Structures are given as structure tokens and as C-alpha cells.
Amino acid sequence: MGKVNRTLFVFSVVFFLYFLFGILRLAPILQMFRISFYDFDLIGLRKEFIGFRNYIELFHDTNFHIALRNTLLVVAISVPTTVILAFILALFYNTKLRLRSFYQLIYFIPAIMPTAAVSLIWRWMYDPGYGLLNYVLSWFGIRPVPWLVDERIALYSVIILWVWKWVGYYAILFLVGLQNIPEMYKDAAKVDGANWWQSLRYVTLPLLKPVTLFVLIIASTWAFRIFVPVYILTLGSQGAPGNAVRVIVYDMYENYFVYDRVGYACAEGFVLFLIVALFTFLQLKLTRGSEAEGGT
Amino acid sequence: MNFIERFKKLVLYLLLTLGAAFIVLPFIWMLSTAFKPPQEVLSLKPHLIPAHPTLDNFITVFTKAPFGRFILNSTIIAVLSTISIVLTSSLGGFVFAKYRFIGRNFLFWTLISTIMIPPQVFVFPLYLFMRDLGLVDTYLGILAPSLIMGFGLFLMRQTISTIPDELLDSARIDGCSEFRIYWNIIVPVIKNAMGALGIYAFITSWGYLLWPLIITNSEELFTVPLGLAVFQKRFTVEYGPMMAACTIATLPLFLAFAIFRRRIVESFVLSGLKG
Amino acid sequence: MKGKCLWMVCLALVFTLGIYDLAGAKTVLTIQSGYPEIAENVYKIAAADFEKEHPDVTVKVAYYNLRDHEQKLAMQFAAGTPPDVVETSTYFIAKFLAAGMLQEAPADIVEYIEKNVMPYAAKFYKYNGNIYGMPYFIGIIALYYNKDMFIEAGLDPDRPPRTWEELIGFACRLAKYEKGRLARSGISLRLSGGGSGVAEKWWPFLIQAGGTILEKTADSKYRAGFYNQAGFDALDLYIKLLHLYKVDSYEVKHDAEAFALEQTAMFERGAWVTGYLKEHNPDLNYGIALLPQYKQRGTVTANFGFYVPQAAKNPDLAWEFIRFLQRPKYQLLMPEKSGWIPVRNDVDYSGVLKETPQLATFFETPEDYVVESYTGISPENEIMTKLAAHLVKAYRQANLLDNPEGIWKVLEQAAAEVNEILKREGLYGE
Questions:
Q1: A189 lies in a domain?
Q2: What is the pLDDT of residues C83-126, one digit of tens each?
Q3: Residue A67 belongs to domain spanning
Q4: In chain A, what residues touch C95 (CB-CB under 8 Å)?
Q5: Domain count across chain B
Q6: Distance from C241 to chain B by nearest Cα, in Å?
Q7: Which residues in chain C have their CB less than 8 angstroms from residue A43's CB?
Q8: pTM (two decimals)
Q9: How far apart are CA A208 and CA A178, in angstroms?
């Protein structure tokens, strides 16, 4: 009796989920995959099947190479930075120190603000002549920094924005994980004579693995998909040059909407998907033996 | 020891405060600009306190476009979306975490893989589909893609997998139906994760621009980001009204966070486990 | 089962809202624009007046910023759900025109265009011998200059530079330095930013030097038109202005913002800046002049107008509204409120000109003034954007000064890429 109940339950939930995900995500994605083999434009003037030609062209496309390099840089720098800072913050949140809820709120504010608006504000703050950042730097006698206009710095300006936006949110995620660790384990460690650092290293961190892995995967996936800040920071005459901050999704957007090369853009989207999937898979593999794979 | 402890605390608070100042600076800037007249907005030396504070920008926001309506639309969509996402994700997370069945891993990761595709790409096929269903320019049309979230499913499954099975088994022995187990046991235990997901779902729903842009034609259905885009003129941005609009737009989000925060932070999971 | 009830209620709510029908019993005419300043100040007013004259019609004016508008239009045309009246540039509409998605203009409108619209705008609306839209406004680039700064530098405020030589000379006298750094640029150039803007702003200089970006060839195809002396001179001018005369730099503000903030003495832009200045610096004493000449005089323009898609729900009503918008009342509102220049040549603009006399320059088009616009071929945007990327990189290189080989190399690479794109699209000619 219970068995039938359970099977029914599992089946209906999975079916329902697949119904929704199928229509709203899977089907369109499969469409995208299909289109990537065509020379396709949005209004149907071109609908030629060209097999792998899009992918081959992508392989030789310098813009894509630049996009790939920039995207990898964004991920490589922003993810560890954000995650480590968030973890430290979460440790603080988990104490009984005063004002912790105040800081939780403050650090969370960037996550609440709409990304487009936030990017506009930052673009303004990055203005070489009259932006807030250079103004503050001028108090210390530092020359104005061309945050967006200099190709070497522009990408880091994007990264700073990205870290700023998400550190508070990841900290909350870590906090949730930290709170799920029963006090008794830490008490037991204390009884055994462990100090704060040892307790952290040998009790907390291992138990936090699923959450840490989760935050890492999410942070890197979102970093791979970064778009709005790049789009907004390149707008206008004070904006960053396109190639300095070109990331994959920006390149895709340009190909899809500006150049009307939909098939090509879809191929790019699929390649991005492969990269992210590979990256995620590696992350999972590297932390094998943890409770990440189901827990039961 | 007392002095070192005190000193450590001081350094800690100092660093935190510096960080907080950095974090909050753009927000303060936004508020400050919202109250500045146009001449001051474009001034040479950035100053935080407006010399001639004005409410004109806020008035412009509500008169140039039915901004109140935009906020209402965004709120309705965001609330419905959040409820749907939290429910579907937690149910799904429960099933994928605590039940064994054939192809479980494959089915799970297929769904999760949808996170890895940037939305710009599948917007068009989805639009065509909505058009065929007659859902263009409707609330349901705007809401549809936000009914589920791969990230949510992932988060819930990870969280639920840390719950000991014994809890479930004992409930089953007591004769609980599966849904009961979900509702009465799992949900209370993962309340804080649901809160974290809820706030993220709410914020994300608020921030969507591309999809509402494409699916709506009538101004009455616009969401807040679409409304904000009005202040982004051809080559320039009307910073004053836009910052005022952003300020107004962030208020509901603050409220939502304030509501969720207690759930996220204050609830203690252990009570569920100890029993 | 509390949970299930909640779920049911939510679903019910969702479905009710989904079926909620916003349109009433009236016919709904939709017009979509990418220029909020025009939509708010002109179309909305016209819509209200139109509704008064046609009580059974509701006119919905939808407007977005340009990028979003174009994105949305692309989707709408592709899905067959476009608005009744589309306001857009000849540049953007080109591919839809080629795909046969637009309606031909009715005979009375064709006649009207021939009689009442400025010829250099009208010519862009012909396709295969037929007229497909109604020109409405243009964006032509002219030279803005700050008269007070001219006076301060000992220059005649009513005598703007007329040649490149004068431009350079004036800029040198107008630039101001503080502690060895440029504090006010003599002329504000477009040096950075994503997209095609950098190439678009370089183009007028290229024209004045006798070249162009896309040259039409004998067999109606195209090729890069700047891998020549003209391209060299135009790029060389920028390099000199930046690195030799140092009248502009990367550290100062640029563009309309800079002009409004009085951080630059001169810059080149379209008429919309007048509207911007009225709001942000109404007391600025400035003038507008035709662009200075080198080997010839010339500038770039963009043409905007209305089109009626084949898939429009109310085509006749659409053309009706387009006719309605030709009334002088709205033609005058355009420059007055938004700063954009209408193309009717038979309306009395003196009222507007009295208030903003600088706008007069935009109505001038002397015989020898070459006015170029976009060709409308499909990869044009891509070509412009990629050319811009080359230019952005080149401007930064101070080592291009007194380095003709370096400059030729840049032009060669850029032209090669442009021609590659043309070849890919089958549009390359010799």
C-alpha cells in the first residue's frame, strides 16, 4: 500500500516538473541546439542547413576567443574572491556578536538592487573625470584611473561590480549551511581541546561541503553567464570598448540581436553550455566522496 | 587576553564597516541623486548631499508613466513566481533527494543543466510558443517562464539531502502519506533554505527585462525594469528620475527581504532534528 | 490539506489573470517607437487628438529605449505580431523591406512625399521603384561650439571653424590644462564605447577627406571605401588631435554630457542635444555650425519614419494616423520639445527657430554639402561595430604618430575584415 503511494507520489512530482521544465526550458533549448546547425536569421530570409559550419567558424572567430578569455578571467577571479569573502562574512554572521543582523542587511543590499540600475550607477562612479571613485582617490593624491576606458583595467572594473553584488547573498547561503551544523559537533571538538581554527578546519568545513560545493557551482555558473553589467558598462561614449569586456553572452547577444546571425549565436550558446557543464562536472569530481550526490 | 580579544573585535568591526561602506556607497549615491535637480545631477564635483533637494524626480516618475501600476504588476508576478518556484523546487528537491528510482541522477542533472544556458537564447522559441497559445500580452504570459527555477531545484535538493532518513522512516511507520511527510516534516526543517530561495526568486523576478519586453505590448502590463528603461533615452540617461524610480523600485524588495530574513536567519534547524 | 488549497488558489489566480482581457470593444491602433522623448511629447499628444476625432479607436503608444525597441521589433516581425505603425530608421528596416514584410504607401502619400518632404530624406524611402514608408525626422550631425569659450580664447563667437586647419587651430586655443593634464578638451571626439558609435562619428571626417565606409561598386555591390588617402587623412587627424596637439584625452568627460558641463569647447552631434541642453544647462551660450571641410564638405544623417507592416492588424487606420501626424502642429512639436528635426519643407518653423535659433543650421543643406546615410545592407551594423573596434584600438596608440606605415596597417586590417564580411554575405564587389 505504502509502496504504491510512494511510486505515485514520485511519478506525479517528476512528471509535473518535467512538464513545466519541458515546455519552459527544455524544448526551447533543444530548438536552440537545432538552430545552431542552420544559417538562420530572425525573419526567415535565410534558413539554410549548414551542419557544423557555425561551430567551425566559431573556432576561428577572434571575437569568440576574446570572449572566452574574458569570461574565464571573470570566473577565475570573481568566484574565489566572492566565495572566500562570503564565507568569512558568514562566520561572522553565525556568531552572537552584536550588530550582526545589521551587517547582514547592509551586505545584502547589492543583491536586492536591480542589476541594470546598479550597472548604471557603477558606470557613473567609474567615470574617469568626475566619477565618485576617482574623486575619492583624488583625496589621496592618486591620479584618475581610467576604470572603463583602459582596456587593461575595464574587465577588472566589471569583476569588482560582480563581487560587490553577490558577496552578501552567498554569505547568507553559507550561513544557512553553517546553521545546519549541530552545535554538539563543535562542542565535542572543544571538549577534545581543539581551538577555533582547528574546529573550523576539521569539523565545520567538512560538514559544510555540500553547501560550499553548491555555492561554488552557482557562483561559477552565474559568472559564466554574466551579461547585464557588461552590456551597460559599454554603453555610451564613456563606456568600455567592446572588446575589452567582451564576454561570451555579450558576444552571443551581439550575434543574435545586432548582427542577426541567430544560428551562429545558438552555436555559441551551446558551446557555452558545454563549457559550463564541463566545469561543473570537474567541480563535482574534485569533491567526490562528499554528500553532494544525494546524501542517501 | 581581554585586551587581545577586544582588539580583535575592534579590527573585525573596522574591516566590516569599511566593507559595508563600500557595499552601500552606490546605494547612497542612488538615493542622493534621486533628490537632485538635473543641473546638480551632472555636476563636476560629486557631492553626496544635494544643494537644492527636490522631489521633482519622484513626481516625474509617477507622472511620466503609470509607475504605480508597474510596481503592482511586478509585485503580483514576483509573488506568484516565488510561491510557484519555492513549491516546485522543494517538492522536486524532496523527491530527487530522498527517493531512489531508475534514472534519478540523469533526470535530475538534465533539469539542472538548464541553469547553464543563458536565457537570451531560448527567449525566441518560447515567444513563438506563447504566441501560439494566445498568451502574448497577458499576465500569464509574463509569468510562465518564472514558474520554475533550476537553481531552486538544485538548492532544495542539496539542502534536503542533509536531512537524516530516520526522520522520514519514523513518519512512514506512523502511517503518513508522502505528501504529509513533505508538508509536515521536510518543510519546517528547510524553512531557512526556502527563505533564501524565496528572496532570490523574488529579486530575480523583479529584475527580468528581456522577457517582459518581448511578451508585452500594453503599457498597463509593464513591469518595473521596462518602466525604468523609459528614462534611458537615445544617447543619454535621465539620471535624476531614473534613480528616483530605482529607489521606489527597491522598496518592495527591502520589505520582502525584511520578511524573509527572519525565516532565513532566525529559525533553527536543530529543533527538528533533536525531536 | 492546507498546502493543496494554497496551490489551488494560486493556480486559479494565475489563470484568471491570464485570461484577463485588457482591450475593450474599441479598435486598438498600436504605434511603437524607440525615442521616448518624441513618443511622450509628440505621439502621445497626437494619439489623444486622433482619439477625439475617431471615438471608436484607441491609440496605444508603446515606447522603449532604442536598443530594446529594435530587439522587440525583430521578434515581432519574426513572429508575425508587429504593431500597426512602426517608427524606425531606414537602416533598421532594410532587411524587413527586403523580406517583403512592409506595405507599400498609398498613392496620396507617395504624392505628398514628392511634394512636401526634403528630397535628401525622401530618397531613402524608395525601394525597387516603390515607396514604402513615410519619412518623419532626421538625425544629421553638425558642429556644436561654446561661444563663451570662443570669446575667452580670443576667437570670434560667430565664426566657427570652416576647415580642418581652423578646427585644429581653434581646438588648440580652446583646450585648457591644469597641472599638466587636460582639464577642458578643445574638441570632444568619440574615442571609446561598445557598439558602432565610434565608427559612426569617424565617418563624417572620412567623408570630408573624400572617402566613405562602404563604397558602392559598378555591379551594385560594395567594398570598404577607406583603405585610401581619405582614410589615412581621417585617422591621421584623430591621432594628431589626441597625441600631437593633445586637445582631447581619455581622462576628460566626452560627448553631450561634457558639452553641458562645459568641459569641452566643441563636438559633433545631432539636433537632439538642443533638447538635452535645455534641461541640463539652459543658459549655455552655444552655436551650431555645418561641419568643417577638408577636401569637400559633408556630414552623415540618419533617416527615421513610419512604416506599416504587412501583418498589421489595422493597416488602413495605420496610414490614417500617419497622415494625421503630418499636421503642422505635430511637426512643430518635434524640434520644440525633443530637438529632432522634421523633414517637411513647407512648414513655417520660425516660431521654433525664434526660441532656439541654433536649430537653423539643421535646416541648411547647401549644394556642395555631401549628405551620406546608411546603405541598408544587412551586415552594415556588424561592419560598423567591427570597424569601431579597430578604431578604438588605433586611437590609443600614440606610436601611430608620424608613423604612416602603422596607420596604413590599421586601415588595411580593418578594410580586410570589412571585405571579408561583405564576401560572406555575397555583397562584395570590385
A1: yes
A2: 999 999 888 888 888 888 999 999 888 888 888 887 777 777 88
A3: 56-295
A4: 41, 43, 45, 260
A5: 1
A6: 24
A7: 74, 77-78, 95-96, 99, 101
A8: 0.83
A9: 7
